[in-house]
UniProtKB/TrEMBL annotation:
Full protein name: N-acetyltransferase domain-containing protein
Entry-linked InterPro entries: Acyl_CoA_acyltransferase (IPR016181), GNAT_dom (IPR000182)
Pfam families associated with the record: Acetyltransf_7
Alphabetic keyword roster: Acyltransferase, Transferase
Domain N-acetyltransferase: 17-167
Keyword Acyltransferase listed: yes
CDD domains per the UniProt record, alphabetical: NAT_SF
Cited Gene3D superfamilies: 3.40.630.30
Length: 183
């Protein structure tokens, strides 16, 4: 069972935002959003070599799985997205980005709410997981406000342990795994 998307227009700090399922034709815009969002990170946090958008084929794969949602303005311009995948009994957030010009206007929260609503409506999903930076206010502290808790290492979730290990091997520091119950 999938949750109904947040397809109603929702005001977000002066913007009218609609959240809808992503389509293949969104891939170029999603890759631009991810590249733009990477510019807010210091090179010490996100080295330029790692600040590359998700491959188009990977985005297509997760879009085909029905687990990517786009936030758009009243003109249809994409402002952000969240991409997830199901891993065992977890809905894992692979990526969530908002264009810097629309940051801090509730768009990230709308996207996170969509992922949570999907997890709550899916019988086989017990937990929502992600990895993020521990020291940046728009990362771990943001998720913490919405029920995500930091886990020691991968917290017993094999996919989180593997993600943290891979991130560390690529040179990312200050990373943490987080999870919250789906319902």
């Amino acid at each position: 069972m999938t949750a109904k998307p947040f397809d109603a227009e929702v005001p977000a700090a002066g913007l009218v935002v609609t959240v809808r399922a992503a389509r293949h034709e969104d891939i170029p815009a999603l890759r631009r959003i991810e590249a733009d969002a990477a510019t807010i990170f210091a090179p010490s946090d996100l080295p330029p070599a790692l600040a590359q958008p998700m491959a188009a084929a990977e985005l297509a794969r997760v879009i085909d799985g029905g687990l990517v949602w786009v936030a758009q303005d009243e003109r249809g311009a994409a402002l952000g997205f969240v991409a997830c995948e199901t891993v065992a009994s977890a809905l894992h957030v692979l990526e969530m980005d908002v264009v810097p010009s629309a940051a801090r206007k509730g768009i990230g929260l709308r996207l996170l709410q969509q992922a949570i609503a999907h997890a709550e409506g899916a019988d086989a999903i017990e937990v929502i997981t992600l990895t993020t930076f521990s020291h940046l206010p728009w990362n771990a502290p943001f998720y913490g406000r919405y029920g995500f808790r930091r886990l020691v290492a991968g917290g017993g979730f094999e996919h989180l342990s593997a993600a943290l290990s891979g991130e560390s091997a690529r040179g990312l520091k200050n990373r943490v795994a987080m999870a919250r119950k789906a319902a």
